[in-house]
Design brief:
11% strand, 10 helices, two-stranded antiparallel sheet, 348 residues, 45% helix
Length: 348
């Protein structure tokens, strides 16, 4: 009987039983050498990430973890739906040749694909025309720009937003992701002087303003991620947490005092307990400059003056400099690092 698949070849096909075959189908990677992965849990969102082959745990890897929800199972269960469809398409294409060979063998056509049968006055000519194998398109994968290397096992991977867990070793690397975001801001700040010389002071000033907006956004995203994780740990459902974020939190985490109030009310914890009142006030004053920058083209308005009780004049431009943004980064890093330890490493 002609086998369905020809053994060997590009996909290292091997017969393992009467009707069983094994083949190895390499999955395509992106320009950075990372291959897509997807959390098997239907409750996980976003669930999609990428890993670089050859990094992380390369031997005896029996358990892998979702970077977002820490769902754990064997590494082979993290294939994406598109990758599975791609593998099935490759398998079907390889099977076509085996099916045609089996048909030729059953009809006695031989390699020519032709056979003439004569029975008295009856003459029958059989022929089988081989069809072109169907094209197989590689799976379309999404672009991920947030890449980090796990400090514990060395896995190079990319995620959406701020993930928490290493896919290979399961370590909590949330602060590694946070640091990667702050490093981008730091790189932009270091380039301000060059851009000022080449493009002018207004461009450089706008760069600094953008960096401040990024710092506030990172602060909000980090606090939100830690709040959700802590609420999940208390047993609240995703729907309950969604309601809390919608009704109680909203955009309060962009504001120093309101973010402090949110954590006090929901978790009974003071996020600024480990930093001095002077540092907290410094961070507040710098963060408040974001309002006129974001909503009023940097022009001081009454709302800003009421919040900050500043001597600046209404209608003038608010000024933010490199030292202020660097100070905000430093204080924020200290706040979230200590808060993370208090929430998730209580023994430290």
């Amino acid at each position: 009987m002609t086998p369905l698949f020809k053994e060997g070849g590009l996909y290292k096909i091997r017969r393992t039983g009467r009707e069983l075959y094994e083949m190895s189908i390499p999955l395509p990677s992106d320009a950075d050498g990372r291959t897509a992965r997807e959390c098997p849990s239907s409750d996980c969102s976003p669930g999609y990430f990428k890993v670089k082959s050859g990094t992380g745990i390369t031997g005896n890897h029996t358990t892998a973890y979702c970077p977002y929800c820490r769902f754990s199972t064997s590494p082979g269960k993290f294939f994406t739906t598109r990758q599975l469809d791609y593998a099935k398409a490759v398998m079907k294409r390889e099977a076509i040749g085996g099916i045609e060979a089996a048909v030729k063998d059953a009809l006695g056509m031989g390699g020519s694909g032709r056979r003439t049968i004569v029975d008295g006055l009856i003459k029958v000519e059989l022929s089988l025309k081989s069809s072109n194998p169907p094209p197989v398109q590689k799976p379309f994968e999404q672009i991920l720009q947030r890449a980090v290397v796990c400090p514990e096992c060395g896995l190079d991977h990319a995620v959406f937003g701020l993930a928490t867990w290493c896919h290979d070793c399961g370590a909590d690397i949330f602060l590694t992701h946070v640091e990667a975001e702050l490093a981008v801001v730091g790189t932009m700040l270091m380039d301000v002087s060059r851009r000022s010389e080449q493009l002018g002071k207004r461009i450089a000033a706008r760069d600094i303003e953008n960096c401040l907006e990024d710092v506030v956004s990172i602060y909000e995203a980090v606090l939100r991620a830690m709040l959700v994780r802590q609420l999940t740990g208390t047993g609240k459902t995703s729907d309950e947490i969604h309601g809390i974020l919608k009704d109680c939190v909203r955009n309060k985490l962009q504001n120093i005092w309101l973010s402090q109030q949110v954590f006090q009310e929901l978790l009974a914890i003071d996020i600024f307990e480990t930093v001095s009142p002077q540092q907290t006030e410094t961070l507040r004053q710098i963060f408040e400059k974001r309002h006129p920058i974001t909503h009023n083209l940097g022009v001081v308005d009454k709302k800003y003056l009421e919040r900050l009780r500043s001597a600046e004049r209404e209608g003038h431009e608010v000024l933010v400099n490199l030292d202020e943004v660097n100070a905000a980064v430093s204080i924020m890093r200290d706040v979230v690092t200590r808060l993370h330890a208090r929430l998730f490493s209580p023994s430290l």
